[in-house]
Write a structure and sequence with these properties.
Number of domains: 1
CATH topology: Rossmann fold
Helix content: 40-55%
Number of helices: 9
CATH superfamily: Vaccinia Virus protein VP39
CATH class: Alpha Beta
CATH architecture: 3-Layer(aba) Sandwich
Strand content: 15-25%
Strand order of the largest sheet: 3-2-1-4-5-7-6
Bound molecules: S-adenosylmethionine
Length: about 230
């Protein structure tokens, strides 16, 4: 029964956003429909009691979460990383328009093998990227490696529940999404994990003591972890 409700996962390629047109299409979607998610994420992240200032936004895309974090915490320096240079080009423009280039920089690097040194971040965040990672366990291990002991990570992603997709399609329509925007959103949800799948992946990784839960608000999974000292 539960399997019927959740449905089968239909993976997307992690290269889904490498073209200029898909990157621009995503950024327009993010600008119009995801502002409240970024603001909620930023409030949650800003409340994490980390003494340091160096934050990594993994799979930063067009940088809109990084910008929201920089606004929420004027003492933080944010690094956005992504596999897609096209997304990062838009992210640099967005950060420049927000006059935040002094506190946000961007690097192209795959999440499975980050170019950053061990323990160099006080907080690692990621929103809506996990469902695209080709090897989530490897990425979780990389997050554990680049996080400083005693510091944190916070990951959010969609939760798959395919039985709700017709309802979500209607909701997207009511929110003013075009048919291609609704397709993008539903593809992301179909390629996302269930809470049981996320917990199983975490158990296989260096984040095995992370806390994963369903966010009560809206088909979202959150993962929070503190690196042992
Ligand atoms: C749906 S977008 C989300 C972007 C941004 N975090 C946001 O909330 O708007 C997913 C992003 O993850 C990136 N991505 C996917 N797989 C990746 C990987 N293996 N390493 C780094 N970035 C990846 C994609 O290029 C894309 O920019």
């Amino acid at each position: 029964m539960i399997r019927f409700i959740q449905g089968e996962r239909i993976p997307l390629s992690e290269d889904s956003f490498i073209n200029t047109s898909t990157a621009q299409f995503y950024d327009e979607h993010a600008r119009r429909f995801m502002g409240s998610v970024y603001r909620r994420f930023a409030v949650k992240a800003a409340g994490i009691k980390t003494p340091g200032k160096r934050v990594l936004d993994l799979g930063t895309g067009s940088g809109r979460l990084a910008i929201e974090l920089a606004k929420a915490r004027p003492d933080w320096f944010i690094t956005g990383s992504d596999i897609s240079e096209e997304m990062l080009k838009i992210a640099r423009t967005n950060a420049s328009q927000a006059a935040l280039t002094d506190r946000i920089d961007f690097h192209q690097t795959p999440a499975e093998s980050l170019l950053f040194t061990d323990g160099c971040f006080d907080l690692v965040v990621s929103n809506s990227s996990l469902h695209l990672w080709s090897d989530p366990i490897k990425v979780f291990n990389e997050i554990a490696r680049v996080t400083m002991p005693g510091r944190y990570c916070l990951i959010w992603d969609n939760m798959r529940c395919n039985i709700l997709n017709p309802f979500l399609n209607l909701l997207g329509y009511a929110m003013g999404m075009s048919s291609s925007q609704r397709r993008l959103w539903l593809q992301a949800i179909r390629s996302s994990y269930t809470i049981g799948e996320v917990k199983a992946l975490l158990r296989e990784s260096d984040l095995k003591d992370a806390r994963a839960k369903i966010e009560p608000r809206f088909l979202e999974i959150s993962i929070q972890w503190k690196k042992p000292v």
